[in-house]
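Known limitations

Structure tokens in this collection are predictions and should be treated as such. Users comparing against experimental data should check residue numbering before alignment. To illustrate the layout, the record for ATPase dynein-related AAA domain-containing protein is reproduced below. The input appears on top and the generated tokens appear beneath it.
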Amino acid sequence: MAAEPRVQFYLGANAPSGFYSLYDQLIDPDQAQDVMILKGGPGCGKSSLMRKVGAAMEEQGLAVEYIQCSGDPDSLDAVIIPSLATAIVDGTAPHG
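Generated tokens:
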């Protein structure tokens, strides 16, 4: 049986008119069970933590959506675990 493809997408992008954000559509607040917002400077481990949580959830058989950073391909802006109605989000500008 083939593995499910990893879901990865962007919720923001730099446009001629400035930063365009769809972060308000990350997760429905009325349905969310848990939303964790990480704040910290560059290189402090926000993306690393989100990757570790995502990998642990995948090991448990749960689908995980990875929100890529449009400004840094090595960075994550968020992970969403739809079946748990949970998100972990980078809360530093321009995301927060």
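For this record: Residues 27-90 form one domain. The first strand starts at residue 7 and ends at 10. Please report discrepancies through the issue tracker.
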